[in-house]
């Protein structure tokens, strides 16, 4: 299986020296789970664009310091590409910024939260449990670093998890038992 990583942000140089860039972190995380995976990175933050949704078997959208509402030349094409992936039923996973831009691309809304920053390890509660999450714990803790949040759900999105700081922390799109996209506000990488 080939995973396309859509790089939407750059890791701070001090952290990059220690942990690598976002694509390296995800290659390590996912490659440890399945060494047979292949990866291809498209640095949309640097102006690269994926050719077609079918260029990969699934796509992962990384975190970013940018907001989905920023007027940057790569934001609108990325939203259009994500809509094309969803229309073609090519699986998409969004992490942090990826969570937000996927929601906005599909009709949701993202704003700077009036709750301020979500920083550090945050506690999350499952609010839905599709069969593919049968072994997931009811509560889990993951690192977060965000001020922006999804505040309006897109049509067809199901909330999977929430926290005291973030009502829509994990989403499934389409049938929650077989979603065509999932996204997570915190950072598992």
Radius of gyration: 15 Å
Report, as a whole number of angstroms, the end-to-end distance.
20 Å
Number of helices: 4
Query: Outline, from the CA principal axes?
Result: globular
**How many separate structural domains?**
1
Tell me roughly what share of residues is in helical segments: 10-25%
Structural class: alpha/beta
> Which topology does CATH recognise?
Rossmann fold
Please, what is the average pLDDT? 93
What is the CATH superfamily label?
A: Class I glutamine amidotransferase (GATase) domain
Instruction: Work out the number of β strands.
Output: 11
User: How many strands, what sense, and barrel or not for the largest sheet?
Assistant: 9 strands, mixed
H/E series: EHHEEHEHEEEEEEE
| CATH-defined architecture | 3-Layer(aba) Sandwich
Fraction of residues in β-strands: 25-35%
According to CATH, what is the class?
A: Alpha Beta
| Strand order in space, largest sheet | 2-1-3-4-11-10-9-6-7
Unreliably modeled segments: none
Describe this structure in words.
By secondary structure, the protein is of the alpha/beta class. The chain has one domain: 3-Layer(aba) Sandwich (Rossmann fold), CATH 3.40.50. Helix content is 22%, strand content 31%. It has four helices and eleven strands, in the order βααββαβαβββββββ. It has a nine-stranded mixed β-sheet, with helices on both faces. β10 and β11 form a beta hairpin. The chain is globular. The protein starts with a strand and ends in a 5-residue tail after the last strand. The relative contact order is 0.16. The model has no long low-confidence stretch (mean pLDDT 93).
